[in-house]
């Protein structure tokens, strides 16, 4: 990370997602369908500190123990002379990641999930479910995503499969993640995704990001490598704000609806606390001045069927979609 002009940008921190704002747009129901709802919440209420030195020390000293099953993966790093473990068990103690019964999860191969998803036999089916027709050949662009997938991508690049760089493009490993969230399957463990992504980042030549910094910080606190008296660099961890979602998004609301617009698409969602209509009262119509929406092309939810990095670390496993 020494070559980075902005070193702080290498530390990718998860953002809190508020259910009252994003629940009406089915974000929480989609994450719950996979047992991933804990990924929308940060592990504690510390929203001012970033322990850059401790996080970097943990990543720099990371080792991976031998294992025979993915659920036995275990990374260990040393911070302030204290061994700090990341494993399926420790992540579950930190937060209730993968809340569904264990039998509901399958282990996708790393090729299918993170390394070569474009080689999967159902790759075109996934693209068809996420993008508008004729827009998913060659480079994949965010503006061509259907609006539901676009909203999920905004959250995923911080909380699920963190990255920096060009936010206008969709990277291949993000496709199976978005596909699973949109359709409720295939169901693979969030912890498996976290651990393999951490190891891939650790192995990457010219490593330029550290993902899941708030999860890592939670583990450092759990093992008392960081104490309440320790202070990190000042960083305000801002939650996602539906009214300030950045370039390409516009938010509005009426008495009963939240309304999102993005690059020619629109989506309105009934507020959780919307009052019931009176017996003779008609619901409010769509605004006449809103532009035509690509959303009309996919009013119904698409139907789908269920579909090892070395150096001593995670290995390729059988299994797929």
Q: Would you write up a description of this structure?
A:
- This protein has helices at residues 19-22, 27-33, 52-60, 88-94, 110-115, 123-130, 147-159, 174-183, 190-203, 213-222; strands at residues 49-50, 63-64, 74-79, 82-87, 233-234, 250-253, 257-262, 265-270.
- It is α+β, with helices and mostly antiparallel strands.
- A hairpin with a 2-residue loop joins strand 3 (74-79) and strand 4 (82-87).
- The longest helix is centred in the middle third of the chain and has 14 residues, at 190-203.
- It is globular, with a radius of gyration of 21 Å.
- The protein starts with 18 loop residues before the first helix and ends in a 51-residue tail after the last strand.
Question: What is the element layout, followed by pairings?
Answer:
Blueprint: H1 19-22, H2 27-33, E1 49-50, H3 52-60, E2 63-64, E3 74-79, E4 82-87, H4 88-94, H5 110-115, H6 123-130, H7 147-159, H8 174-183, H9 190-203, H10 213-222, E5 233-234, E6 250-253, E7 257-262, E8 265-270
Antiparallel strand pairs: 1-5, 2-3, 3-4, 6-7, 7-8
Helix pairs in contact: 6-8, 7-8
């Amino acid at each position: 990370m020494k070559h980075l002009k902005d070193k702080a940008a290498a530390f990718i921190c998860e953002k809190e997602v508020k259910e009252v704002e994003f629940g009406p747009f089915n974000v929480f129901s989609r994450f719950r369908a996979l047992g991933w709802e804990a990924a929308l919440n940060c592990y504690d209420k510390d929203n001012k500190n970033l322990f850059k030195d401790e996080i970097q020390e943990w990543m720099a000293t990371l080792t991976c123990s031998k294992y025979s099953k993915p659920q036995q993966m275990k990374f260990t790093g040393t911070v302030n002379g204290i061994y700090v473990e990341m494993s399926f068990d420790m992540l579950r103690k930190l937060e209730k990641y993968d809340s569904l019964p264990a039998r509901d999860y399958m282990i996708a191969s790393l090729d299918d999930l993170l390394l070569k998803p474009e080689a999967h036999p159902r790759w075109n089916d996934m693209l068809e479910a996420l993008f508008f027709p004729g827009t998913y050949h060659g480079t994949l662009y965010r503006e061509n995503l259907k609006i539901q997938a676009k909203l999920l991508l905004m959250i995923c690049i911080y909380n699920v499969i963190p990255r920096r760089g060009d936010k206008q493009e969709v990277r291949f490993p993000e496709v199976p993640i978005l596909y699973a969230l949109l359709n409720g399957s295939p169901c693979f463990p969030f912890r498996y995704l976290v651990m393999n992504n951490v190891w891939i980042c650790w192995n990457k030549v010219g490593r330029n990001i550290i993902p899941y910094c708030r999860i890592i910080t939670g583990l450092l606190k759990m093992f008392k490598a960081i104490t309440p008296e320790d202070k990190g660099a000042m960083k305000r961890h801002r939650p996602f704000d539906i009214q300030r979602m950045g370039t390409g998004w516009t938010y509005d609301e009426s008495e009963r609806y939240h309304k999102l617009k993005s690059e020619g698409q629109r989506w309105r969602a009934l507020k959780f606390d919307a009052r019931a209509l009176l017996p003779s009262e008609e619901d409010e119509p769509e605004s006449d001045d809103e532009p035509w929406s690509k959303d009309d092309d996919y009013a119904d939810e698409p139907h789908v069927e269920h579909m090892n990095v070395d150096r001593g670390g995670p290995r390729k496993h059988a299994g797929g979609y």
